[in-house]
Amino acid sequence: MKLDSKIAHIGVCTDEKTGAISTPVYQSATFRHPALGESTGFDYTRSQNPTRKVLEEGIATLEGGAIGLAFASGMAAVTAVLLLYKTGDHLIVIEDCYGGTYRVIDKVFSNFGLTVSFIDGSHIDEVIQAIIPATKAIIVETPTNPLMKIIDIQAIVKTAHENNIHAIVDNTFLTPYFQRPLEMGADVVIHSGTKYLAGHNDLVCGLVVARDAELGGRIRYIQNSTGGILGPNDSWLLIRSLKTLALRMEKHNSNAKVIAEWLTNHPRVLNVYYPGLPGHPGKAVHESQSSGYGGMLSFVVDSTQLVEQVLRKVKLIRFAESLGGVESLITLPAVQTHADVPVDVRERLGISDCLLRLSVGIEDAEDIISDLEQALFV
Ligand SMILES: Cc1ncc(COP(=O)(O)O)c(C=O)c1O
Question: What is the pLDDT of residues 219-250, one digit of tens each?
């Protein structure tokens, strides 16, 4: 079955008795045992819930993994994966990862003796040099947030497996619709489901998919032990959202391409970061591992006054955190999503006070451009 069909049919007719097309919401905390020592397969919703199970199996199918797991947020998903590691273990993480991921590793997991090297993942030599005997995982996002650098997933996987360590990819920006890291050999995929998978700026959720059942089982054990599960109602909402993923991703993708090209020609825009532009250094690698560019782009304007003006004047585009929803959103990463990345690191990376990040929605591209035009007009 083609991916579009799999996407549209997540959770269809899971209730044999009624033949309900849509998966029911099993809003129950606990489940009756048929007899002593017997189970229906569901005992208590933290351990498993029928609605969440449909979602978890659905995302595992889309990513091509053995086990999917749904969490209360993307950060709960990141945290569950990090809990695979223990005191003395070392991680290699891209330096321009999502600010919340940077923070939880740098400020929370460091308290438990987990060490980390933040590196530029677009240079595989830097990754290789960072490996030490204690290294247990390499964690990447591609394209990166907000600078849209491209990481070579296959090179990361090869390096990781040659050194007997895990390759973990945060696939939030592209979703399995455009990129499937597990098929390239990655061990774990993480999502902030809040973004494109949920897609409507109305739900906070996270997902993990493990390529093999043994590792997936270990993360499931952590999920049940620590309890950051997605509830039945939110699981249902995410199943419903996923059904239109293909349509939404196509529109995000085509809109972002037009807008990136338009921004490139704007006199007040100094730089546009978008992997679909001809001059993007990671374009070839990106095209070898993804079937679309996604809906995210970042751009640099020529002054902080103009940043302030754009954020005040946008109308159709909303000045708000987050990304991946049907509505276009604009953010200033240096003071929002990446505020917890140390200033010197931000400056070195180019996450300046003039860098704006645009999550291109599914509105008409001409309307988004008109809005940007009036907001940038001085
Ligand atoms: C790439 C990436 N990973 C993880 C997260 C965390 O997800 P959540 O906000 O759902 O906890 C985010 C949030 O913006 C993100 O952009």
Answer: 999 999 999 999 999 999 999 999 999 999 99
* pLDDT per position as a tens digit, 312-370: 999 999 999 999 999 999 999 999 888 877 888 888 889 999 999 999 999 999 999 99
**What's phi and psi for 371, nearest 5 deg?**
-65, -45
The answer to whether the CB of 285 falls within 8 A of the CB of 277 is no
**Residue 270, helix vs strand vs coil:** strand
The whole-angstrom separation of Cα 170 and Cα 188 is 8
Residue among 136, 133, 150 at smallest CA distance from 94:
150
Test site for ligand 1: of 79, 98, 151, most ligand atoms within 8 A of the Cβ: 98
User: Domain 3-242 carries which CATH code?
Assistant: 3.40.640.10
Rounded CA separation 374/378 (Å): 8
Q: Which of the following CATH numbers is that of domain 245-376: 3.40.50.360, 3.10.20.30, 3.40.430.10, 3.90.1150.10?
A: 3.90.1150.10
Q: Residue 329 in 3-state DSSP?
A: strand
Computed over every residue of the chain, the mean pLDDT equals 97
Query: What residues does each domain of the chain span?
Result: 3-242, 245-376
Q: Are 315 and 370 contacting, i.e. CB atoms less than 8 angstroms apart?
A: no
Residue type for position 234: D
Which of 69, 45, 46, 54 minimizes the C-alpha distance to 15?
54
* 172 Cβ closer than 6 Å to some ligand 1 atom: yes
Distance CA 352, CA 363 (A): 28
Atom of ligand 1 nearest to the CA of 173: 1
Distance CA 139, CA 75 (A): 14
For residue 342, with 0-12 CB atoms within 10 Å meaning exposed, 13-18 middle and 19 or more buried, which class applies? exposed
293 and 275 Cβ atoms separated by less than 8 Å: yes
Q: Residue type for 169, please?
A: V
Token digits of residue 359: 């999550």
The pick from 93, 192, 329 for probing ligand 1's pocket by mutation, whose C-beta has the most ligand atoms within 8 angstroms, reads 192
Q: What angle do CA 171, 174, 260 make, to 5 degrees?
A: 135
The amino acid at 125: D
Atom number of ligand 1 nearest to Cα 205:
10
